[in-house]
Amino acid sequence: MWYYFNKSKFYETEFNTTSNLLKNYFKSIDIVLHSAAKSEETDYEKNLKILEDYFENSPKCSKKIRSFDEYLGKISLEERQKFKNIIKTNLEIKNYLKDYDSFISYKNLKDYGFSTEFTNILREMDNAFWEYLSSKDNGSVKKQYYEMLYNSLNGKIYCPFCGINKLKNTNTSVKLSPLEHFIPKAKYPFVAWNTDNIFLSCEDCNSKKGEKILNKKNIKFFPIGFDINPQLKLDSYDLIVEEDSSMDSYNCSIEFILGNISPDDFSEYLSTWNHLFSIEDRVKESLISYVKKKEREFKRKKRKNKNFDFLTDIEVELEGAEKDGNIIKIAYLKYKEDELKNN
């Protein structure tokens, strides 16, 4: 990632509130669910009641909660203890980064003795909660959470995963950029609605990543909590641009400059980046396209005014690009700035 979501700028939204209610409910699942004494309530009973009240206007979520509660009452005490341990692992997203093999997928539930019926009930409930949060009927809920994430990027308006595409602004766009599930919601329980796992990305990154997961060849990195700050450097390019030709020959050499980690770790970090988002190929393709555009632009300006101050023009553009987080523009303009200063 080129830059990260600033967690210190996160604030409470209804989206977060819903996620926390769900976390509290699942965390309260224990070997004993219901109290034998009517005058007392278990933590599970209390959180179940809170959840039922919260989703009383959502028939679909209410139905899934009832089905899940009924199934929990049928399974053995041993199975409940196993499920409690799974919940403890999967609710903490950082456990996926530490040891993804210990993070339990829907597919792995059968290895712990849970039936296909139980897996389906859990999957359907997770999906129902995500649909509730992301539905058009709850547009204001999603929009508020989206704005919180957007504002936490410290003024950057480009996708933090690729630095190529602009993120949609809620003030100017009807259709917003996707909410990205870093850990695929289709494969793992409890991550579809967990706000520790939901971020902003451009449509291209959302599509490229799809349901890809980390593997043993990839170092773990995450959209918050890191301070890597890599940079893209354009080392050279060989480009022949004919003003009236659509056939341009080109080639370029790029370099990813490591941030605040060792060269070996950065190599693994870049491997993960490529694995999840195909970053190098996409960056190179976008950079070539931008170089072609700017070279034509400079040629036109030079023809119109032989004394045009290209260096000042570049410095102004570069300042704006660094503020916005336009990685492609920054790489080219820095290259051009050095080229002009050295000639």
Provide a quick synopsis of the model.
The protein is mainly alpha-helical. It is 50% helix and 7% strand.
Topology:
Blueprint: H1 14-27, H2 43-54, H3 59-74, H4 77-90, H5 94-98, H6 116-134, H7 139-151, E1 179-181, E2 198-200, H8 203-209, E3 231-240, E4 249-257, H9 263-277, H10 279-304, H11 310-324, H12 327-342
Antiparallel strand pairs: 1-2, 3-4
Helix pairs in contact: 1-2, 3-6, 10-12, 11-12
Describe the strand arrangement of the main beta sheet, using strand numbers: 1-2
Major sheet size, sense and barrel closure:
2 strands, antiparallel
- Oligomeric nature of the chains: single chain
- The SS-based structural class is mainly alpha
Cα Rg: 25 Å
Question: What is the approximate shape?
Answer: elongated
List keywords for this structure.
mainly alpha, 12 helices, 7% strand, 343 residues, two-stranded antiparallel sheet, elongated
